[in-house]
Amino acid sequence: MPSSPAAAAGGGCKPVTGSSWNIGVCTADNGTTVFADLYVNSRGSVGSTCTIYRWIERYNAGGTIQEAKYPATARTSTCTLGHKPSISAPKVSGKWYRQYMWVSVNGSTVLSGTSYWTT
Description:
Immunoglobulin-like; four-stranded antiparallel sheet
């Protein structure tokens, strides 16, 4: 079984905050797979509908050109407090990876941000 973000190397969790939200956006890798998970530590208004969207982005070395997204269509998570399950992508040597996420409340983005890079 592959390592989870907590047990893998690189990346780490980056706090993304705003509008009373605090989300730890995390990436790590085990050398062959990049893992990304989230921690919803506090939240603002969740309105009548609230969804967290996210994917892993792969960039060229140097992080200047986006080459791919995993999964191709954003993974969705609930806006409840706590840990959100990991998503993963194959790791290609020399490439840079990060997780991008955004919170949508009633169809409007209220928070967005990225994790630290894992290379």
